[in-house]
Design a protein that fits this description.
The chain is mainly alpha-helical. The chain has a domain at about 30-54. It is about 60% helix and about 0% strand. The protein has helices spanning about 20-35, 35-54. The longest helix is centred in the C-terminal third of the chain and has 17 residues, at about 35-54. It is elongated.
Length: about 55
């Protein structure tokens, strides 16, 4: 018998597994609450820059 894997990756390209917009909104709220609006905005600026490069 094999042991279970420790890591599982779920890919959701078309919003069927996760509501991507809701996840993004939740992350934005969490970052603002925990680190402040300025840090949240900096995070998203860096994220968007990296996404554009890839």
């Amino acid at each position: 018998m094999t042991s279970p894997d420790d890591v599982v990756f779920l890919l959701d390209c078309d919003n069927t597994l996760l509501d991507n917009d809701l996840v993004e909104d939740d992350l934005r709220d969490h970052l603002a609450r925990e680190f402040g609006v300025e840090s949240r905005d900096r995070y998203w600026a860096i994220f968007e820059q990296l996404r554009a490069e890839l």
